[in-house]
Specification:
alpha/beta, Spo0b-associated Gtp-binding Protein, Chain: A, Rossmann fold, six-stranded mixed beta sheet, five-stranded mixed beta sheet, 23% strand
């Protein structure tokens, strides 16, 4: 059985700690025969937080360890000593993780940037010791209050990749090859469709050391906006990107028509989320090193009224032009 290596949606169970009970105690010292109440309060229960980490790229850890618990608060002690507070539980998740209540679907919140934290289960308050219940007419109270219960929830976590640029194209169009050419990422590359089965992030580093994060989205197929071929799982990863690169196999390998591919890609994005079409974009004509690509490029320009960048991601031809276009868009230089 093939091991699971990536998860972008998981169900987790979070348990905040209960507060410690208050203590019923009386002062007992030499020469003090009738000391008053001195029972301390219970400690507060620990809470559960999600913390965004740039070092996490998947929810895989939570897939294997879905139960996350914080500590209970300690019981109050005599001599007005408060019980120890329970330690909080900080759960690392990838940047871009959204949180929903599993049963109701209620949106809890999201963590987008590295270090962001989200409280998902609050710990119970510590109970009161008997020292709080003393009055002039009730000088030896034994009343205490129990600690409050910590919250327990079943949550659904969904990852939406946080990247500046999204690579969009049909399977085997050359997205992963382009990502390897412009960044330090090393996604698997093979001459067959669906080599990429989960989003891959790469960073394009320019000469001035400024960077742009690029996400390689698994290849889309017709009907992706309806969830066909895990379309929803793939499409949501481009929702946060501010710039799209349409990668078109201009040679028409596998019998594809470049014009139909480009139009259908835009159609799928529009049907999934209309505002995606309004985002800045770049059309890249890949596999221009193949002989049949030149004639199809002429037809593509005529029918789509676009002027794509001509590249061969495999040989590296034209890749610098792609990087220059990204640098100009994000930093105003080339």
């Amino acid at each position: 059985m093939k091991a699971v290596t990536f998860k972008d949606r998981v169900r987790i169970y979070v348990y905040a700690g209960d507060g410690g009970n208050g203590c019923s105690s009386f002062r007992r010292e030499k020469y003090v025969d009738k000391g008053g109440p001195d029972g301390g309060d219970g400690g507060h229960g620990g809470s559960v937080y999600l913390r965004a980490s740039k070092d996490q790229s998947s929810l895989l850890d939570l897939y294997y360890e879905p139960h996350q618990r914080a500590e209970h608060g300690g019981r109050g002690q005599g001599k007005q000593c408060t019980g120890r507070n329970g330690r909080d539980r900080h759960v690392k998740v990838p940047c871009g993780t959204q949180v929903y209540v599993e049963e109701s679907g209620e949106f809890v919140g999201e963590v987008i940037n590295d270090g962001n934290e989200l409280l998902v289960a609050k710990g119970g308050r510590g109970g009161l010791g008997n020292m709080h219940f003393a009055t002039p007419s009730h000088q030896a109270p034994r009343e205490t209050t129990p600690g409050g219960e910590g919250e327990q929830k079943i949550l659904r976590l969904e990852l939406k990749t946080v990247a500046d640029v999204g690579l969009v194209g049909y399977p085997n169009a050359g997205k992963s090859t382009l990502l390897r050419a412009i960044s330090g990422a090393r996604p698997k590359v093979a001459p067959y469709p669906f080599t990429t089965l989960n989003p891959i992030l790469g960073a394009v580093v320019f000469d001035d050391y400024r960077t742009v994060k690029v996400a390689d989205i698994p290849g889309l197929i017709d009907g992706a906006h309806k969830g066909v071929g895990l379309g929803h799982d793939f499409l949501r990863h481009i929702e946060r990107t501010g710039f799209l690169i349409y990668i078109v196999d201009m040679a028409g390998v596998d019998g594809r028509d470049p014009v139909d591919d480009y139009r259908n890609l835009r159609k799928e994005l529009k049907l999934y989320r209309k505002e995606l079409l309004a985002r800045p974009s770049l059309v890249v004509a890949n596999k221009m090193d193949l002989p049949e690509a030149a004639e199809k490029l002429k037809d593509f320009k005529r029918r789509t009224k676009t002027r794509p960048l001509e590249i061969s991601a495999e040989s590296g031809a034209g890749v610098d032009a792609v990087k220059a276009a990204l640098q100009k868009h994000f930093f105003g230089t080339d």
